[in-house]
Design goal:
The chain is mostly helical. Helices cover 55% and strands 0% of the residues.
Length: 109
């Protein structure tokens, strides 16, 4: 019979010992789930971690880049662009609109 697995449901091996949740030698930290996000290879992970911790998250950094690109697009205009370039600008504008809609929805919640 064929083996069927849903996405993100691969083989997992985890020891669950409730006694270590309370009587842990490392201070009794309690959590049911621990997540570790691997952002991929970095030439200097210590610098990257410090920037994320002390300056700005990836989302904040990308948001600032989006702000600059939007301002540059407004300054440049689209009058002298090729059709392909106009499509690229329009796609970027649509992306920014979708992001702004999500941000607005969360501000109201």
């Amino acid at each position: 019979m064929a083996r069927f697995q849903l996405p993100l449901s691969g083989d997992v091996t985890q020891t669950i010992n409730p006694w270590t949740w309370v009587f842990s030698p490392n201070g009794g930290n309690f959590s049911l789930l621990n997540f570790s996000v691997d952002m991929g290879p970095s030439s200097n992970p210590e610098v990257e971690a410090e920037i994320i911790r002390d300056v700005a998250s990836y989302g904040k950094q990308i948001g600032r880049i989006e702000d600059v690109l939007t301002a540059l697009i407004e300054i440049a205009g689209t009058a002298n662009l090729s059709e392909r370039q106009k499509k690229v600008f329009a796609a970027f504008g649509a992306l920014m609109g979708d992001i702004e809609n999500i941000k607005e929805r969360h501000r109201r919640e």
